[in-house]
Amino acid sequence: MTSGDSNRVGRARMTGTQRRQQLIEIGRSLFAERGYDATSIEEIAQRAQVSKPVVYEHFGGKEGLYAVVVDREMSSLLNMVTSSLTRNRSRVRLEQVALALLTYIEERSDGFRILMRDQPAAAAEGTYSSLLNEAVNQVAHILAGDFGRRGFDTSLATLYAQALVGMVATAATWWLDAREPSKEVVAAHLVNLCWNGLTHLEADPQLASEWPRGIPESSGGATP
Questions:
Q1: pLDDT per residue over 150-205, tens digit each?
Q2: Could you give the number of structural domains in the chain?
Q3: Do 121 and 51 have their domain in common?
Q4: Per-residue CA distances from 99 to 107, 108, 168, 171, 193 (Å)
Q5: Contact 156, 64 (CB under 8 A)
Q6: Domain annotation covers residue 224
């Protein structure tokens, strides 16, 4: 049997479902490495050792394959983040959100790189920004309840949610390449900043430049 015959036999043993999964994994790797525009159907087919029509048969083209890859990554990350927001006490929720995002980055780095890249214009939905917006909405709901119990302005919960989610997301993006310290240490420090900041919130904060003269900075401008 020639090597070509062997390859054909090997390919014949792969079911349609297996082939589709193979193409998704290959596309995921190439999209993460090179981005959407620099990835071609030819290279995807070559790595899978199939003809281009096989890729078109499964996905209709590069855009279809990309959409499937992004949808799977979004579902995976969204499930990890949202499940962490619906369990446990407030501080543990913050810890689990940070750990969920860092764990996703650790386990699916290629997927995270794909979500972070610019997507084709046709892919209006399923972006990383839409995931962050979903996280903001959920965090805002949690904070609104906490603000209400403390007598704070609940309309500002979304502002604080944007800041908290943005801080975690930015730190997580940095950690994608840094990978030090460990995700547990990163999560602990993020929560330290978030939680202690939330614990000592002032009901009506003012810019330091507007404080009455004579009030030291260490007091934060707050009255006893």
A1: 899 999 999 998 998 888 889 988 999 899 999 999 999 998 998 888 888 888 88
A2: 2
A3: no
A4: 12, 14, 10, 12, 15
A5: no
A6: no
